[in-house]
Design goal:
With about 170 residues, this protein is an alpha+beta fold. It is built from 4 helices and 4 strands; from the N terminus they run βαββαβαα. A 4-stranded antiparallel beta sheet has the order 2-3-1-4, covered by helices on one side. Belongs to the bacterial ribosomal protein bS6 family.
């Protein structure tokens, strides 16, 4: 005979609070599902509370909070039945938390000791900024030459345009 493993869970689910009798029937159904195969409820709370915002066009809901020890199969059945009830509009939301210390401790260990990622280049890429092979002084001299050439060209074009305008004036006077 196979031994069943029990895990500790905390389950919170919200039921539509418009019909209290229906809320209690849903609660009984969920408790029955979660306690089959010797599952045990250790703590149970329920209350009605306003939502911070509308959920499925509802302003408030009947909250049920259970702390229990049950099998993962019972949790799977609970999730399946909950999704059916949610499609019918009887329940609003749920939250299932596994409270097993081993899983919590391993998660804390992983969180506390993060490994630094190792980055390796898979290919050799040329740098994005290319450096000039020529020294700065040579570049400055070359820039000065091109600036001088540009100013000479500008002066020539201005002289040519002024000569053309004087020729036009002379032809108009004749």
């Amino acid at each position: 005979m196979q031994e069943t493993k029990f895990n500790n869970y905390e389950i919170m689910y919200i039921v539509d609070d418009q019909n209290p009798e229906k809320a209690n029937l849903i609660k009984k159904e969920f408790v029955e599902i979660l306690t089959k195969n010797n599952g045990k409820i250790t703590k149970e709370e329920d209350f009605i509370r306003q939502f911070a915002y509308k959920i499925n066009h509802k302003n408030s809901g009947h909250y049920f909070i259970l702390q229990l020890s049950t099998t993962p199969e019972n949790i799977a059945d609970f999730n399946r039945i909950f999704s059916i009830k949610q499609k019918q509009g009887d329940v609003v939301r749920k939250l299932v938390i596994n409270l097993d210390e081993e899983k919590i401790n391993t998660f804390k260990e992983r969180k506390e000791s993060p490994k630094k990622p190792e980055f390796t280049r898979e290919y050799n890429r040329e740098p994005r900024v290319k450096t000039l092979d020529t020294p700065k002084a040579e570049v400055k001299q070359e820039l000065a030459k091109t600036n001088k050439e540009v100013t000479e060209v500008k002066q020539e074009t201005q002289e040519n345009s002024s000569e053309k305008s004087t020729k036009k004036e002379n032809t108009e006077e004749k």
